[in-house]
Design a protein that fits this description.
The complex is a heterodimer. By secondary structure, chain A is mainly α. Chain A has 14 helices and six strands. Classes of the chains: A mainly alpha, B mainly alpha. At the A-B interface, helix 7, helix 11, strand 3 and strand 4 of A face helix 10 of B.
Chain lengths: 360, 220
């Protein structure tokens, strides 16, 4: 008996060693060299929104992030937890922001990005910050990092059926995710955000679909996403920060701490995050904050629950929920569907009107 | 007559010393309870402001559910502390709950007095506190504890102005399994990802912050 334990230890050690060797081996294969990746992504289709499904619905057009603009799964980045695959690109560190006029604009962009409420409130119609969905100040892989988005524009987007440059892409974030008014082209807010994204992408290849871009695309769940199961997941894993009512929490100084996930002060029915698959990918990779431990099924379920709650109207609202749903909402949207006897979108507060009264 | 007087005095005496009789939270805070419960104020200050020099934490203005969970954990031994364990065990469940509510309602402004230490926290502490270290899946401390650690809601206690020694001690306690990991084990998981060299700077950062938040900056 006594010498079985050392034997077991040796066996386990060997097994672990083998596993590590195997992992290193597969990792080398799955992390493409720049040359491989270039080949894989060079086709125009890889740029994003040119597939047929894109033109039909929002399936490809996502606001606030580039999740489903990935037209094909990225090797090594399609699964959450594969952040290591993004090792081949790292944005510069905060301390490297240059000490000149350009650097000042980068800092301004970073301030807007992390405290949008404070620094761009005239364009914001809810209680969100850019950095709520783009974690680590827009740096985190699998959290729609700015450095991966920057070099993918100009790109055709099914959402508005034309080629968008990066500025227009950010305007979309303000219109949908921030439920506000897009800053006009040339506005300093826009220039600052562009500068910040551009600087974060220093050294990144242009027009390359970098690993970690957007949010991971989860495989379809074993069981169809369930509102009821999602409600339980929410209570167990989300309510601590976002509140039982999903309305977020403020810090003792009155500033926003945890963002509202639905209701009049959250993202609207046109935002990318309102789509269950997008939210599921974000949640799986990033939630709970710093301890992303949910299963795929739990992520799908809770995304379904969150995105089955009323929120500000889609800014493209035609006057009819069913018509708007038909025109703009695809299979992953709950908009126009009946949940607990209520048609979602029917009681939506008007979009973009929750803007705060400007204080002197 | 004399007997009656005697009985009355005995009753009054019983009322005043008996732990079975309702003692108000304020009484417990300031006078203690029986022989096992020293007055809270003797260590945590008359206004729950704590004692920076001795490393006793501020209680004023922290969330009631948080404080109650800590008292319960002291009582059960899940949170190890030689001073607090006998005190918390001597209180009934209801009394622990009442004490938690009592301190949650004291104002953080009163805690100003305990501040005034480590005014020049190292930059490494600020970096971790304000930005986290996402390469190790460590979010910024302030994401859950509020700007400068002023606290968020009932479950994310203020860190601002807490004694550095206390904060350090807690991070180590989580690492050593001597304190329950908190809701969803969040703090145990964070503390496990910290390096020993992170602990002192980040504790000093929060110790140097003002415990009383400037309210309603611009956000309402």
């Amino acid at each position: 008996m006594s010498n079985r334990i050392p034997l077991l230890t040796v066996a386990v050690s060997f097994a672990m060693l083998a596993a590590v060797i195997f992992w290193v081996g597969t990792r080398d294969q799955s992390a493409p060299t720049p040359a491989q990746a270039k080949t894989a992504n060079a086709a125009p289709a890889a740029r994003g929104d040119t597939t047929e499904s894109a033109t039909k619905s929002e399936d490809v057009a996502v606001s606030g992030n580039a999740a489903s603009e990935r037209s094909e799964p990225l090797p090594g980045a399609a699964q959450p937890g594969a952040a290591s695959a993004a090792d081949d690109f790292a944005p510069p560190t905060r301390s490297e922001i240059p000490d000149d006029e350009f650097g000042a604009m980068v800092r301004k962009g970073r301030d807007i990005f992390t405290d949008t409420q404070q620094h761009a409130d005239q364009f914001v119609g809810n209680d969100l910050q850019c950095a709520n969905c783009h974690l680590d100040e827009g740096r985190r892989p699998d959290s729609a990092p700015l450095w991966a988005a920057w070099a993918m524009y100009p790109a055709y987007r099914g959402k508005n059926k034309h080629v968008n440059d990066f500025a227009e892409r950010i305007q979309g974030c303000f219109r949908y995710s921030m439920n506000g008014t897009p800053p006009p082209r040339g506005d300093e807010v826009l220039v600052a955000l562009e500068s910040y994204a551009y600087w974060l992408a220093s050294g990144a290849p242009v027009a390359k679909n970098l690993p970690g871009r957007g949010y991971p695309e989860l495989e379809a769940p074993e069981q169809p996403p369930s509102f009821t199961r999602g409600k339980q997941v929410f209570a167990d894993h989300c309510a601590l920060c976002h509140g039982r009512d999903g309305q977020g929490q403020r810090a003792a100084d009155g500033s926003l701490a945890f963002p509202p996930l639905w209701g009049p002060r959250s993202y609207n029915w046109g935002a990318g995050m309102h789509r269950v698959n997008t939210a599921a990918g974000f949640i799986k990779a990033n939630m709970p904050l710093g301890a992303a431990t949910l299963s795929d099924q739990q992520a799908w379920d809770v995304a379904r629950f969150i995105d089955s709650q009323e929120r500000p109207q889609d800014p493209r609202f035609t006057g009819s929920v069913s018509e708007t749903a038909e025109q703009y909402h695809g299979e992953h949207s709950m908009y126009g569907q009946t949940v607990n006897g209520v048609v979602l979108g029917q009681d939506a507060p008007p979009s973009g009107t929750a803007a705060k009264v400007n204080q002197p | 007559m004399a007997i009656r007087k005697c009985t009355l005095s005995a009753l009054v005496w019983l009322l005043s010393v008996s732990p079975w009789v309702q003692a108000s939270p304020s009484d417990i805070a300031n006078q203690g309870l029986g022989e096992n419960v020293a007055p809270c104020s003797s260590c945590h200050g008359a206004h729950g402001e704590g004692n920076a020099a001795a490393g006793f934490p501020r209680l004023a203005g922290l969330g009631a559910p948080y404080l109650e969970a800590q008292l319960d954990a002291f009582a059960s031994g899940a949170r190890e502390n030689a001073v607090m364990q006998p005190i918390a065990s001597a209180l009934s469940t209801d009394q622990r709950s009442a004490m938690a509510t009592y301190y949650s309602q004291l104002s953080a402004e009163g805690a100003q007095a305990s501040k005034g230490q480590s005014d020049n926290p190292p930059d490494t502490g600020a970096e971790l506190a304000e930005h986290g270290r996402w390469a190790n899946d460590i979010p910024a401390c302030v994401q859950c504890h509020g700007p400068a650690g002023v606290g968020v809601g009932e479950h994310f206690p203020a860190l601002a102005g807490q004694p550095a020694a206390y904060l350090e001690g807690q991070l180590r306690a989580w690492r050593n399994g001597k304190r329950p990991g908190g809701p969803m084990g969040l703090m145990a998981s964070i503390a496990a990802k910290l390096d020993e060299s992170d602990i002192k700077p980040v504790a000093q950062y929060f110790a140097a912050q003002s415990p009383a938040p400037a309210k309603g900056l611009d956000h309402e």
